Each structure stands twice: as C-alpha cells, then as structure tokens.
C-alpha cells in the first residue's frame, strides 16, 4: 500500500475484513487493530529513507491460537523502543505493541528494508510479551 497518512486506516480495514470472514476472528479484532495501526504508522513515519515515499507491505497470518502481523518498509534501521517523557504526545507505539502481543521483533528483508512482526493471542489468551527479538533472515514472525 502507498506509504501515506491513510495507510494505517487502510491496514486496519484489511485486517477487519479478514477477521470478519473467519470464524473466531473477532477474538483478535481490538488488539490486532491497535497493533497494525502502530506498526504501519511507524513504517510510514520512520521507514522511508531519505524521505522518498515507497510502498509499505502488510501481511497477516491467522491461526486458531494466534494472529501474526508483519509490516515491511524500506528502512534497514531497527525499530527503536523508547521511554517517552510523561508529557510527550508520541513515542509509545512500540510500548503498546509489546503490551498487546505475545512476542514481536524485526528482521532484515532480502534486498532493501526490514520487516517488523508481532504475534497476538486471542482475547483471553496467554500472557503478553516483555521484550522484542531480532529474527534471523528468513525467520520473520516465526
């Protein structure tokens, strides 16, 4: 999808459409929407080297016990989890991703850029993650 301010909404709509068509998909809807919004927002804001607008690729993998969200962008730089000042209006996206997922991480893409992934349990599922990890090439989202 184009890397524009509209991309997070478009990604939420894609995920919502998928989850509506799958029995039990609604168990991932709320947290999935927040996570895909944060990851795509980061890709739009930070994943475009030199300010060039490139495409953002979003991929979903849904199973009975998990939803994996992958967002690919053109930047090779890793995502940076920060602790923002209490009055800051931004900077909490990856903290939110960590709080809502069982695991998350990133890995380089073949060619250019990286993929950031997050795995969500259904509502009422296992405990959430506390850290990120870097995936080996070819292991994004495993």
From TrEMBL:
<dbReference type="InterPro" id="IPR036890">
    <property type="entry name" value="HATPase_C_sf"/>
</dbReference>
<feature type="region of interest" description="Disordered">
    <location>
        <begin position="123"/>
        <end position="142"/>
    </location>
</feature>
<keyword id="KW-0723">Serine/threonine-protein kinase</keyword>
<protein>
    <recommendedName>
        <fullName>Histidine kinase/HSP90-like ATPase domain-containing protein</fullName>
    </recommendedName>
</protein>
<dbReference type="InterPro" id="IPR003594">
    <property type="entry name" value="HATPase_dom"/>
</dbReference>
<dbReference type="InterPro" id="IPR050267">
    <property type="entry name" value="Anti-sigma-factor_SerPK"/>
</dbReference>
<keyword id="KW-0418">Kinase</keyword>
<dbReference type="Pfam" id="PF13581">
    <property type="entry name" value="HATPase_c_2"/>
</dbReference>
<keyword id="KW-0808">Transferase</keyword>
<feature type="domain" description="Histidine kinase/HSP90-like ATPase">
    <location>
        <begin position="2"/>
        <end position="117"/>
    </location>
</feature>
């Amino acid at each position: 999808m184009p890397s524009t301010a509209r991309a997070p909404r478009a990604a939420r709509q894609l995920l919502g459409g998928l989850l509506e068509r799958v029995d039990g998909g609604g168990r991932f809807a709320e947290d999935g929407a927040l996570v895909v919004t944060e990851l795509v927002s980061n890709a739009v804001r930070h994943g475009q080297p030199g300010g060039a607008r490139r495409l953002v690729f979003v991929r979903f993998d849904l199973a009975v016990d998990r939803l994996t969200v992958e967002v690919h962008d053109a930047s090779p730089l890793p995502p940076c989890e920060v602790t923002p000042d209490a009055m800051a209006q931004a900077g909490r996206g990856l903290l939110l991703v960590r709080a809502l997922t069982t695991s998350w991480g990133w890995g380089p893409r073949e060619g250019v850029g990286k993929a950031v992934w997050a795995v969500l349990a259904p509502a009422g599922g296992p405990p959430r993650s506390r850290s990120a990890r870097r995936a080996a090439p070819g292991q994004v989202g495993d």
